[in-house]
Amino acid sequence: MGESIPDKAVIEKAHKLITPYIHRTPVLTSQFINQLAGAELFFKCENFQKIGAFKARGGLNAILSLSEEQLKNGVTTHSSGNHAQAIAFAAAKVGAKAYIVMPDNSATVKVNAVEGYGAEITFCPNTPEDRQGAVDKIIEAKGAAFVHPFNNYEVIAGQGTAAKELIEDVGVHLDAIIAPVGGGGLLSGTALSAHYFSPGTEVFAGEPEGAADAVLSFKSGNVEKAPYVKTIADGLLTPLGPKNLEIIREYVTDILTVSDDEIIAAMRLMWERMKIVVEPSGAVVLAAVLKNKEVFKEKKVGVIISGGNVDLGKLPF
Questions:
Q1: CA 219, 220, 222 angle in degrees (round to 5)?
Q2: What are the structural domains, with CATH classification, of the chain?
């Protein structure tokens, strides 16, 4: 497993490795939303990715990078949903057993999907300590290889491939790219790809006010906890990983926070105007652009929609 920050070659290798298994997701635009934002937005639609989220990329890269010896006792991770699905999906592709720890309040749609890929699920209370404790028990009992959801360089390199594709497919120089931030896997990968493949492109993050740890960590240089955790963006609840924070502090320009009302309004806008299913965590980035129009005014902006795994029985509008 990689022990240093992925360089350009590592991200290119990751992209080659996972390409047979993933979708090269489309980049969509909306004139209506461009007018509203006062900027030219290019939406990278990872809601159309395998498993319905970008996390298929990092999960696949991490699993495909393991040796047969490492895979023989299976793989394990903890996740509220999208990374859980990614690891279950990737393990199924290589014929390895997946032991997934999920918080007992995970969305039903995500639990069902993980089970659908043949993974064995262990439920636990939704605290970082309980999650890690449950994984440690599995490692001890089964000898499974642990793939951290974000604090892992293979995962980061895999997540970086979304921005790499966006940069290649847009065909114009992007002034900025914005990605959501939870644990920081997507944001750190995006920041590295922008640095290597599109020098001069600034990277921003969108973060919910109800899980605003990254913005504090970004300023202090230490992994901070959010002052409170209450947001509809269920994919962005975790604090940053140390590996992610190091990359983010080096290569990210700013982290912009948004309220749940702003997230829901942006989500609704994408459903209504673009006709696409976007989960709240994926709408955070558009919410941040619309809230900070002066930052993005008249710029060409890549917007990474992280996923579309929504519980349709619980839509917020």
A1: 125
A2: 8-53+156-314 (3.40.50.1100), 56-146 (3.40.50.1100)
Q: Cβ-count burial of 121 within 10 angstroms (0-12 exposed, 13-18 middle, 19+ buried)?
A: middle
Q: For residue 78, what are the β-bridge partners? A: 101
pLDDT digits (tens, 9 = 90+) for 17-68: 999 999 999 999 999 999 999 999 999 999 999 999 999 999 999 999 999 9
Distance CA 40, CA 309 (A): 26
- Which residue from 241, 297, 223, 235 is spatially nearest to 263, judged by alpha carbons? 235
Catalytic residues, by residue number, are 55, 80
What are the distances in angstroms from CA 65 to CA 13, 84, 290?
10, 17, 39
Tens-digit pLDDT profile for residues 155-164: 999 999 999 9
- Based on the number of CB atoms within 10 Å of its own CB, is 133 exposed (0-12), middle (13-18) or buried (19 or more)? middle
Range 35-73 burial, b when 16+ CB lie within 10 A, else e:
ebbebbbbbbbbbbbbbbbbbbbbbbbbbbbbeeebbeb
Mean pLDDT of 59-86: 94
What predicted TM-score, i.e. pTM, was given to this entire model?
Answer: 0.95
d(CA 151, CA 158): 12
With tokens 């970004």, the residue in question is: 218
Residue 260: how many CB atoms within 10 A of its CB?
18
Cα separations in angstroms, 197 against 13, 61, 111: 14, 19, 36
- The type of residue at 271 is W
Residue reference for tokens 């047979």: 20
What is the side-by-side strand order in the sheet with 75-78?
Answer: 120-124, 98-103, 75-78, 145-146
pLDDT, tens only, 167-177: 999 999 999 99
Query: Distance between CA 299 and CA 306 in Å, rounded?
Result: 21
DSSP 241: P
Q: How confident is the model at residue 311 (pLDDT cuts 50, 70, 90)?
A: confident
